[in-house]
Amino acid sequence: MQGEALYSIFLNAAVVNNFVLALFLGICPFLGVSAKKETAWNMGLAVIFVMLVSSMAAYGINWLLTELDLLFLRLICYIAVIASAVQLVEMFVKRFSPTLFRSLGIFLPLITTNCAILGLALFQTAKEYDFLQSLVYAAGAGVGFMLALMLMAGLREKLELARVPSVSQGAALSLMLAGLLSLAFMGFAGLGGSVG
Amino acid sequence: MAVLPNTTENLSLDTFVRGLWEENPVFVMLLGMCPVLAVTNTTMNAIAMGLATTFVLVSSTVLISLLRNWIPKQVRIASYIVIIATFVTVVDYGIQAISLELYAALGAFIQLIVANCVILGRAEAYASKQRLHTTFINSLGMGAGFTLALLSLGTVREILGSGSLLGIPLFGEGFQPWVVMILPPGGFFVLGAWLLIFNWMRLRKERRLIEQSGAAANAG
Hints:
The structure holds two protein chains of two kinds.
Chain A: H1 6-16, H2 27-32, H3 37-68, H4 74-96, H5 98-104, H6 115-126, H7 131-159, H8 171-185
Helix pairs in contact in A: 1-7, 3-4, 3-6, 3-7, 4-5, 4-6, 7-8
Chain B: H1 13-20, H2 33-38, H3 43-67, H4 76-98, H5 100-106, H6 117-127, H7 132-162, E1 164-165, E2 168-169, H8 184-219
Antiparallel strand pairs in B: 1-2
Helix pairs in contact in B: 1-7, 3-4, 3-6, 3-7, 4-6
């Protein structure tokens, strides 16, 4: 995968294999914080930041563990690094924007168990990306996550005003919407090079 | 969601059954959705994923329950995650040793069990306060409920999407598979449909309760 162009990695992560809608990573925050566009935007920014930090860290850890021949510790190290990165973001947000801190609520610490971030670290290792490629991959994945979250939030804000049958209220309707979005994103298949 | 017990719970049948139905992690609490949607395109994958998650869930909550008086409050989440990650590594290498084919089919989702919020949720809400045997039974119930949810998606998607069950073809040559069901959108649609059915059942039950109390009031 050494030769893969950067723009193709970015497109691939952001739309073709969108982390939320095609790979099913990070569904919990996707359903949990997509009720308002503003919160969704801020959540997206937080996730992009954590992704970039943990992607860099994961690259370093993978190099170190390969040198030391301790690959079975990889998963534990990755999750520890992600947890620390999330802690960092949490302190930062709490210090500079208490309102944002309140609106994100429990979903901020839960970024730790957001599988999109751990997934990113695992995929970049599996694909053997170099440092720059990993960084671009992380940026693409983050942007893709934000895109899906914003689309969903926009749809749900409109739906607030619509009258839907009482059986379909809540998560069931959100999942159906996500299905339609995912169907639409399948149209991007083949764009920006290889799938997978 | 039922009230989480703050005092230690006594062992009863409810400890197990609660996880299957009333507090089903997927259908009721909406936790751990990622693997539910991602690896349920065939029944076999669903079973394997369910068993792997149950194993990690049971062993890590049992260990956490044993260590609950030694883990300091401030670093408990980090400790839980390290314990869970250890068991996931065990499962990861285990599946590789048993079947490489299955390992390839499940892909990164085995390692992503670490990020399954069902497990961390159980550790924090139950195992950190309860005794060993109730924790074991409760986790077993939750794991069974999770596997049940995976199966109910996996079977529907496999039957509709490839016309087979556990790899055995069900329909004749003329069957045109509904391919979208084994692709990503199908996961969202099938889970959405299940939730619709459960919502409908819940609403019907509530309506019946209201009618009954109304009839009782009229009679009185």
